[in-house]
Design brief:
By secondary structure, the chain is α/β, with parallel strands linked by helices. It contains 8 helices and 14 strands. Pfam families: Lactamase_B_2.
């Protein structure tokens, strides 16, 4: 598997930094994970967006899905789409209310919202806490601890395993998803503090402890907010899991 970072800024895009967006590739199959603010621009820098074979949104906060509206415009109105070479409908896996919520985000006013339907662009599949398959990938989704319905993912291919926390505070589901994986892509939105709100995000310390306790091979930290000191987050994570790394936009990692 190959992991490409389209964006990794947490909660909002930062200066010249897109929000959450990733690509996972194997056997020529291109799976998108998240499509937050600014990520469609980054996607176009590395591949034709029509090359996406499927898209997974772990939850529907804007920093994880805002650019779905832009992708809709491209797939609906591009004057020369590569059809019928590729399927017209893009498989999109997301929480069950994604068809309505993404249509609401796309529509410019109440009149158009009442008749906006994105099923001419996407083939929607509701995420559930279960195992399923997308292309060559075996995937397990688990509901995690976040203010809105949200999922973490365990993605397997060729005997290698990538786990992605999505957005979550510590919870048993994260330990199960991360158990023994080769690479853990973990959000670490802030430094550890009793003043941080509970049930929202991981700190650097918590991400490092998750990786250590799960016995992962490699820890990549992502979703660090522009107002957070990435070096401090890394120091916290490294104290529990030496060798932790902060991802960089545009970086590519082999799993």
């Amino acid at each position: 598997m190959r992991l490409t970072i389209l964006g990794c800024s947490g909660s909002i895009p930062g200066p010249n930094a897109a929000a959450s967006g990733y690509l996972v590739e194997a056997e020529g199959f291109l799976l998108g994970l998240e499509l937050g603010n600014g990520t469609l621009a980054q996607l176009q820098a590395v591949t034709d967006p029509f090359d996406l074979d499927a898209l997974v949104l772990t939850h529907l906060h804007p920093d994880h899905c805002a650019d779905v509206s832009a992708l809709t415009v491209l797939r609906r109105y591009h004057p020369a789409p590569p059809y019928p070479a590729r399927p017209r409908l893009l498989p999109l896996y997301a929480p069950h209310d994604a068809p309505v919520r993404l249509a609401n985000a796309y529509a410019p006013n109440e009149t158009e919202r009442a008749m906006t339907d994105l099923t001419d662009v996407y083939e929607f599949h509701p995420l559930r806490a279960e195992a399923f398959r997308i292309g060559p990938f075996d995937i397990v989704a688990a509901e995690v601890y976040h203010p809105t319905p949200a999922y973490g993912l365990r993605i397997s291919y060729g005997g290698r395993i990538l786990a992605f926390t999505g957005d979550s505070a510590p919870c048993p589901a994260l330990n199960e998803l991360a158990d023994g994986v080769d690479l853990l892509l973990a959000e670490a939105s802030w430094t550890d503090s009793a003043e941080r709100p509970a049930g929202v995000h991981l700190s650097g310390k918590q991400a490092g402890e998750l990786a250590r306790d799960a016995g992962v091979g490699r820890l990549l930290l992502t979703h660090i907010a522009p107002w957070t000191d990435a070096g401090a987050v890394l120091a916290e994570a490294s104290a529990a899991f030496p060798g932790a790394e902060v991802v960089k936009q545009g970086a590519v990692y082999d799993v």
